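Lecture 7 notes: from sequence to structure.

We start with a single chain of 319 residues. Read the sequence below before looking at the structure.
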Amino acid sequence: MYALRRGTLRLFCVLTALSMLASGVSAARQAEVRVIIPSVIYMQDRAFTLGEAARIEGPVQARSALSSLILSTSGGVLTRDEVLQAIRASGLGGVSVELRMPVRVRVETPGPEGNGTEISGYMPEPSDTSLSSMVKSLSAWDGEVEVTAVGSVPQGRLVEPASLVPGTPAATLRFQDERGRVRSLSVRMTWKHDVLVAARTIRRDVPITPRDLMIRSMKITRPGVYVVDPAEAVGHVSRKPVKQGEPILRELLTGPSQIKKGRKVTLVARYGGLTATAEGILLEGGSPGDLVRVRRSDNKKAVVKGYIVDENTVEVKVQ
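Now the structure, written as C-alpha cells:
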C-alpha cells in the first residue's frame, strides 16, 4: 500500500511538473510544399526554371518563389542534390518542402541539327520504351503509367499534344520527322499510383488513426479522388464505413473530429525515458492537435494542459 501511494505521488509530481513546462510551448506549424519532378524532362535550353521542370503544390507565395529558381545542366542530367541546393539557396523560410524525384533525372534538349524552329514539348526520336516517359512528362504524373501503342512508333519528335490529363485512357500522339511530315500514333494508357487504403474496417464518424491505414498501388481513373498522404486522413472521420482494403476517398472525409468537453481521456506524459499515464476529463472540447485543459479524474484540483492525439488520448508536450 505504501509503495502504491508513493508511485501515485510520483506520477502526480511528474504530471504537475510537465504541465508547468508545457504551458509555454506553442504549436508552430509550417506550411507544406511538394515539388515533383519526373524521371525525364524535356527543355528547350540547358538553363531552365524549377517551375518549368516540376509540378509544385502548396501555398501560392511559396510556389511563386520556388518556380523562379534557375537550374541548369551540362551533361543532360539533373541531380536531386542540385535541386535541394537551389531550394536551400532560395532563402524560403517557414516552409516544409517535400521533394519527390529520382536521384538523377534525364534532361532532353534539342540537338544542334535543329532548324531553329521552336516546338513546344520537344522530345527526341521515340521508342516503345520511352513512350511511358513521354506521357509522364506531358502529364507531370509522379506515379506509374503503362503505355500500349496501337502500331509502330513513328520516327521524329513529338509535337502534339502539349499536355495530357492523368487518368486519360487513350490519346493520339503526333510526331514530325525531319521532312516536316506529321504522323499519328494511338496509345492506350493505364495509370497507377500509391494510395491509402483501409488496413481494417474504418467505422463511420470514428477518427482515423495511422493504424487504420496502409499503402497500396492502384489503377487510377480519376486523379485527385484518392487520399495519398496520411496527413489528409489521420484525425479526420469518414461519413461512410470503409471496408478493409478499400481506398480512402477524399469526398468521404470531413475535418478533424471535434472531441467534446467532459470526455474521459488518458493523459500521457513523457520526460526523458520516463512515461507516466493517468485518467482525466476534458475541460474543453477540441480536435486532434489542439491544446486543451484536462482535469485529473482522481484530483479535481490537478489541471494540466496537453495536445489531443485522438478521441481517447491527450499528451503533455515537453521541450
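The radius of gyration is 27 Å. Keep this in mind for problem set 3.
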